Structure prediction request, 403 residues.
Amino acid sequence: MPPTSLAILGGIPVFAEPRHVGTPFIPPRELLHASLDDILDSRWLTNNGPFVCSLEDLLAKKHGVTHAVAMCNATIALQLLFRALGLKGEIIVPSFTFIATAHAATWERLEPRFVEISPETHCIDPEAAAAAIGTNTAALLGVNLWGQLCDVERLGQIANDAGIPLILDSAQALGCKTKHHSSDQPTAGGAVASVISLHATKVVNSLEGGAILTNDEALAEELRRLRNFGFAGYDKVVSLGTNAKLNEFSAAFAIRGLECLDNLIHHNRKIRKMYQENLADLPGVSLHDPPTSPTENHHYAVLMINADCPLSRDELMLTLWAENVLSRRYFYPGCHRMEPYAGHPATCQLSLPVTEAVAASVLVVPASSAVSSQDVVLISQRIRQALQQNGDVRERLQATVSA
Ligand code: T4K
Prediction:
């Protein structure tokens, strides 16, 4: 059957309901209901309850570390980690990341020093990080973007040589493995700790949530105190803590999700492969698939739209939005181009050409458990059609802008 007209040109959107990049995974409802009954029966709702403890055990085993400290979200987890490590001064971070990475540091009065990424992986460029280390550098923060690991081995060497800790923002990287280990090891490369997110949009979620993974027992103990007002016993407060606890239902939700993780990753891999095959012959469109990335959670399907594409990245995005395909230009325009960093004297003149080029080319398309093979076929068809009818599409978009 010939495809119907593009929605931007007056046709009917290919989907009646929006298709998102990260629609949450909902574990089997009967299992969630059973967990909820257990929680209600026990009347233990939060404060390090049995589900939180089980989740921590599962996450620690899954990632090959001795401690997982559950938190209310990954942003606060990063903040508490910086605080527990007593960091002061600058922290080296890639600019191409979700803004929470930089904001968490700034909330803790650290100054993010933004550095370049590798164009192949989109993760922090280790040599750029090494070049940025100075006397005021407190830590090196690698971000495991798109569910893949950054070059943790090289970053670990650099941090070690400089005598500073390597920290990993693994918010997107739950379940990822290094090429050197058969078990999951996000703290590889000597990282002192790694922070995962369990936000609704992640491969497995706890509605809101996160966890810090570490092999450092003293650090884990301090993090447990910091997330609970600084309590070290019933009446004993030993430090300036806050409330960063995860509740029991969130923990149960994540446990049920983790039971499905292998299937989810299998599904994600299939979806990404389908995008790759369906879009292979289109000019200027490719799936980001770095060769250095042996195992991932494949949670994001990231298209690179370059100058050979008959439509710009933004034109293609708007065309897809009209189809109810809510593709995203993560992490445009880069943290250094967002406030408060863009207006900050230390950052306002900063030029990061690779970051800016990547941020101008990335288009993340719907993937994850809520996207079916048939969805990928339809989305790919619409992309193909949009490129074929690029003249009409551009004309319509320009008319919309000037109206
Ligand atoms: N570091 C990195 C590298 C990160 O990527 C993130 C988070 C963090 C740190 C901080 O972790 P958390 O503190 O959040 O634990 C989303 C997520 O909100 C954010 O967690 C994630 N990274 C980021 C990459 O994406 P937005 O604002 O772009 O999208 P959002 O939340 O509006 O959701 C995306 C789509 O999913 C929506 O368009 C609708 C759909 N959706 C969303 C929610 C929340 C649903 O269908 N149901 C839902 O419940 O940030």
The pocket of T4K is lined by residues 20-24, 73-75, 97-98, 100-101, 143, 169, 171-172, 197, 199-201, 210, 326 (CB under 6 Å).
